[in-house]
Amino acid sequence: MLFLDNASTTKISDNALKVYNEYSCDYYFNPSALYMKGAKIHQDIQNAKQDILKVLGANKFDNIIFTSGATESNNMVIQSFAKNGSKKALFGISEHPSVYNVAKHLQDNGYNIEFVNITDKGTIDIEDYKRKLTSDVNFISIMHVNNETGAINPIKELVNIAKNFNKNIVFHSDGVQALGKISVDIEDLGVDLYTISSHKIYGPKGIGALFVKKGINIKPMLLGGGQENNLRSGTENTPAIFAFRQAIIDAVSNVDNHFLEISKVNRYAKDKLLSLPYDISLNSNDMCSPYIISFAVANLRAETILRMLEDKDILIGNGSACSSKKKGNRVLSSMNIADKYIEGALRISFNYTTTISDIDTFIAELSRAISVYKENTNR
Fold this sequence. Notes:
By secondary structure, this protein is an alpha/beta fold.
């Protein structure tokens, strides 16, 4: 099988799986238990948080809240800060559905929510951002790396603009597609809140985390036993937490080497796509994350091509896995991509093991699939 949908999920690494098994079978004790073995696990969790803060370049007095994943982390943030009847919250128009759909729901229910436009390159439109940064704004959420195109937003610049306008604005960024793929330094970015996820960086599913800067107060979504400093009750998913920590350490320690290698694969794939004798739009430019390429074939149904490739044991995506069943494409439409390409939008995304040979295999089968499609549809 050739898996080119790594922006949706990744295979758990051997190191992370080993840790997961150890804490599932050997160190399975409840961290809330009063006996020493439980207390030891509780302390290990606190140590894991400090390890993650250090890897992220954050302050040791900041906080990490473990959640079930990025969707929960994002919802926790938005419910804490955007649900304010007297204030305005700004969101990027190209946010992941776990942010955009929550913000849209609040907007539809009367809350003061505005969406900031993006440029044709997929990044936040700075001028539109400044226009909408009015005196009643108290919260901003802009993703670091777009999950569909790989567009990298200038988070540090956006934070500086906001904080210089009003130092009390709370700034959140969804960093799911950034961590382990590009350099992430929380202190340098200046964000107050930052969402990360395990299964995007070769860790297990069902675990994510929210970075919370010291002094930022989050409202709990789950009440119960008071775990996670009363912010996220429920017995901690200890095997996943420690496997996640291992995945973060491994991914970040190799980020530069992997970035260089994947950049070569990315460039090769783009060249091959553009060499095909079809009307193809590349929606990911050279300033995007090299791990993601969004492209589209004119007048073609992406789902049909995806299924044809699946028959050849090649798996790719057609946008966010969380919204792939919805028609249209909010992100590409916001980039002013012509309508003739929207229905044919596809996404390939890489991991550190993806090779040039993999790309050759993909391109050959993609070309065959498009040819067969056009013959059968007269498009």
